[in-house]
């Protein structure tokens, strides 16, 4: 089988490495891939949003299966364009990708189908949004409707901050057209859990739960990032909570999308918060998370390609999605200054043998060297019998990798490690 993976991050690297475990895979192309992915796939310099070139490349190279992972191409309709040309895809079509592409759409869907989420109002008119903010409880959460590179959510502690956010989204258009509408919602509190799930539109099979670490600095301080590290499983996600989520959130979401004439196929990402009044959906993503994927796939015991093909064919009920009972920890090594300004072009030295897997995100090939080219540079994942051992191993191996200006958090997994007792308390209060 000849496969094409669209994207260029650590997530795509993890998917490519896992796909190779299937013996039927003969070749993998990455569009555009990166300097590290180049070891595991043929990188083709076509951008993830260059729809025409992607389709042309797929036709010319007799691609049997396309895996479309980043949010932008999915929301743009790359899956639709490929499928119209007879190329089967992993990933939702444009109509289904609205679940991430429009927060107004997803919030209204949840309200209509009784799926638990924060209370909210939506606005297309800035004046009404500003007036509404005078009446709400603080803090309040302001969200741009469309995609915003993960920066479209502002938690405002004062009315002025909320108003500034509304003006910059709706008037100054800092996120472009994504700011034509806003969602203003209630601030929720509680531990967060990411659950990715395979679905063919009818059946949904959740993957192992994950805890992400979004802030740049230790102790959850600093700016929000794409994610500085992950651990799986997430101890807050007990089997009781998993059952509730399946019954109250996962299955109802799939059914709702079916009823709306937008069956969702691919990987659906549930960003959940375990609040004292129940588990609520914070957001949907229409794709694998990054760096969630870098801890989920190393623990997947089933064949990724087989499961992916089943989501495309509508036969997910016939395949097993099994996970190991081990734990995984991924530490992201970033460029100092990320998520703001940072320098690039530094050589990355990775020892030939490591007791961890290195997923490359922001690096390019420069002659024979691998050099930094982005904010998040590497994701280093270790797997072990316990969470403690996985964390310890990940940090030990991170210590053996070198590049100038390397920066990483030192406390990935600490909350998860410390929270076991607290989890029982928190969860009994809720259940
Ligand atoms: P997102 O960009 O949608 O992933 O949101 C970023 C982060 O904002 C989430 O991971 C939450 O930590 C936080 N967040 C989003 N919505 C809310 C909310 N209603 N209450 C509290 N925190 C929120
Ligand atoms: N790590 C969160 C995301 O992929 O959006």
At the first level of CATH, the class of the largest domain is Alpha Beta
Helix share, percent: 25-40%
Mean pLDDT: 96
Number of helices: 14
The major sheet is characterized as: 6 strands, antiparallel
CATH-derived architecture of the largest domain: 2-Layer Sandwich
Low-confidence stretches: none
Provide a quick synopsis of the model.
By secondary structure, the protein is an alpha+beta fold.
Which features characterize this protein?
431 residues; alpha+beta; six-stranded antiparallel beta sheet; Rossmann fold; Dna Ligase, domain 1; binds glycine; five-stranded parallel beta sheet; binds adenosine monophosphate; single chain; D-amino Acid Aminotransferase, Chain A, domain 1
Structure explained in plain terms:
The protein is 31% helix and 26% strand. The chain has 431 residues and is an alpha+beta fold. The protein has three domains: 2-93, 3-Layer(aba) Sandwich (Rossmann fold), CATH 3.40.50.20; 119-186, 2-Layer Sandwich (Dna Ligase, domain 1), CATH 3.30.1490; 192-417, D-amino Acid Aminotransferase, Chain A, domain 1 (2-Layer Sandwich), CATH 3.30.470. The strands form six sheets. Strands 12, 15, 18, 19, 22 and 23 form a six-stranded antiparallel sheet that branches. The chain has a five-stranded parallel sheet with strand order 3-2-1-4-5, with helices on both faces. The protein has a four-stranded antiparallel sheet with strand order 6-9-7-8, sandwiched between helices. Helix 7 runs antiparallel to helix 8 (159-170). The longest helix has 21 residues, at 239-259. The mean pLDDT is 96. The site of glycine has 7 residues, from loops.
């Amino acid at each position: 089988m000849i496969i094409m993976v669209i994207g260029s991050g650590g997530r795509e690297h993890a998917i490519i490495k896992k796909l190779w475990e299937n013996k039927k895979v003969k070749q993998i192309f990455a569009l555009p891939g990166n300097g590290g992915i180049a070891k595991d796939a043929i990188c083709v310099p076509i951008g993830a949003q260059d729809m025409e070139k992607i389709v042309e490349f797929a036709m010319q190279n007799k691609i049997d299966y396309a895996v479309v992972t980043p949010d932008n191409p999915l929301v743009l309709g790359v899956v639709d364009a490929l499928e119209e040309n007879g190329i089967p895809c992993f990933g939702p079509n444009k109509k289904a990708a609205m679940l991430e592409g429009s927060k107004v759409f997803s919030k209204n869907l949840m309200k209509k189908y009784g799926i638990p989420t924060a209370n909210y109002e939506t606005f297309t008119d800035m004046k009404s949004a500003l007036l509404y903010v005078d009446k709400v409880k603080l803090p309040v959460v302001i969200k741009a409707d469309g995609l915003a590179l993960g920066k479209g959510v502002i938690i405002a502690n004062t009315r002025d901050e909320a108003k500034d956010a509304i003006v910059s989204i709706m008037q100054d258009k800092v996120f472009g057209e994504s700011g034509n509408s806003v969602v203003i919602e209630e601030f929720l509190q509680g531990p967060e859990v990411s659950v990715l799930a395979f679905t063919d539109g009818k059946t949904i099979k959740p993957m192992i739960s994950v805890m992400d670490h979004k802030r740049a600095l230790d102790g959850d301080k600093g700016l929000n990032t794409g994610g500085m590290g992950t651990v799986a499983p997430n101890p807050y996600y007990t089997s009781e909570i998993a059952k509730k989520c399946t019954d109250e959130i996962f299955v109802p979401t799939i059914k709702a999308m079916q009823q709306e004439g937008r069956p969702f196929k691919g990987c659906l990402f549930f960003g959940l918060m375990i609040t004292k009044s129940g588990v609520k959906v914070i957001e949907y993503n229409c794709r694998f998370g990054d760096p969630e994927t870098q801890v989920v796939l190393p623990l997947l015991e089933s064949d990724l390609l087989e499961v992916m093909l089943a989501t495309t064919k509508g036969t997910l009920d016939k395949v097993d999605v099994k996970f190991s009972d081990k734990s995984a920890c991924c530490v992201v090594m970033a460029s100092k200054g990320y998520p703001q300004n940072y320098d690039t072009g530094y050589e990355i030295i990775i020892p030939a043998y490591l007791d961890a897997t290195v997923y490359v995100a922001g690096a390019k090939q420069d002659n024979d060297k691998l050099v930094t080219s982005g904010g998040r540079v590497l994701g280093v994942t270790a797997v072990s019998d316990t969470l403690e051992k996985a964390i310890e191993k990940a940090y030990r191996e991170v210590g053996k990798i070198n590049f100038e200006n390397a920066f990483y958090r030192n406390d990935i997994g600490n909350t998860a490690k410390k929270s076991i007792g607290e989890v029982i308390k928190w969860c009994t209060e809720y259940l």
